[in-house]
Amino acid sequence: MNYTEEISSFRLYLENEEKSKATVEKYLRDVRSFVDFVKDKSLTKEQTLSFKNILVERYAPASVNSMLVAVNAFLDFIGMSECKVKQLKIQRQLFANEEKELSREEFRRLVSAAEGSRISAVIQTICGTGIRVSELKYITVEAVQRGKATVNCKNKTRVIFIPLQIKKMLKAYIKKTGISAGSVFVTRSGKPLDRSNIWKEMKALCRRARVSENKVFPHNLRHLFARTFYKIEKDIVRLADLLGHSSINTTRIYTTECGADHIRSIEKVCIRLTT
Length: 275
Description:
This protein has 275 residues and is mainly alpha-helical. It has helices at residues 4-16, 21-38, 45-58, 61-77, 104-113, 118-129, 141-146, 164-177, 195-209, 218-233, 236-243, 248-254, 259-274, and strands at residues 148-153, 156-161.
């Protein structure tokens, strides 16, 4: 059974639930992987467990869980809830992986290497506001003039303030490109830049900026914004609002300190106790 009709109906269901386009595509991609695994076999919980075991061998725990969320949602949708499986239990990591986290110095090198280009403006805007890459379309000429953008994402509306330095940079970019209205970051055909456009341009910068490819992707800029804000303000509630998070537990992931900072904190405690 190939479940073609069920997958098509599942897409409509997700869209009616007002899931974002990226979420819908992610769910469908994961469900198709599951269906390809099952193939012509009878769909049973044992099959789902076998699929889960393969995921565990191939992917990081967080990725496994995100795929299982999609598969379980599909099983609920087609009336086979008895075939659902539990997600992996993951202990929250106390410190970030420095091999994957972008530093301020690396961010500056990226901006310097891209100086004057569209991707330089994109990088500075994401890292200077904490905006999601999917929300960049809301950075319009009008929003730059006002100094704030109204963002609609995941059935929520929030206001993104554009800092003076970013506003000045964007005004210069708008003047240079001759954009008179609408989204600031667009393709040659006038459509808003999407994740793949930005990803490709960022990856092309890595060698020039001497930054590892593992660290260079749009969401890491948002992480850097969050870590920097939290280091200055120590206010996780305000940070959650700025990032558009419903749960502070999600925000905690963004504020995890690097391993070196974690060691320094532990050493301070030890010194305080022993002196």
